[in-house]
Design a protein that fits this description.
The protein is built from two helices and nine strands. The chain has 159 residues and is mostly beta strands. Strand 7 and strand 8 (135-142) form a beta hairpin.
Length: 159
Amino acid sequence: MRLPYENSSGQFVIHAHKSRKFHWDLRLEVPAEENDFEQMDILSYKKIGIAVSRRDTVMWSFAVPKAKFPEKGERLLLIETEPHPVEYNSFEGIIPEKIYGAGEVRIYDKGVVKWLEVNLSKKKIRFELLGEKINARFSIIKYGKEDKKWLWLREEQVS
């Protein structure tokens, strides 16, 4: 998975995921790399009726343990997970036991992500979500020394 290009856009989806612990999954469309598809558990996707095809984009995916979006000035922890196929965006249903992520998945919101700024020196990425429920500008900032932890901040509401 590559970082997004500034001034580009793609899809986003937020899944409400009731597995061991209820959380959200935030998924943002970004350019794909060949090894993204090697990381995917394609057999598990097939078991829930999703045929994965190699394409130019994947969904950059994060678990949101607090299952909400940040209010202005609030910071929420995001934990980066493996890339997901774009085909997963419309999935709602039950992931069977013994498959990673087992439990109920529902779409909370979906729409367009607009990539505003990708600043690798500050480890900060700014974007706008234009969805059915959420319309706001956000930042994610690398948190700590671990590769998988980010902070999610809301910048402003979009009218």
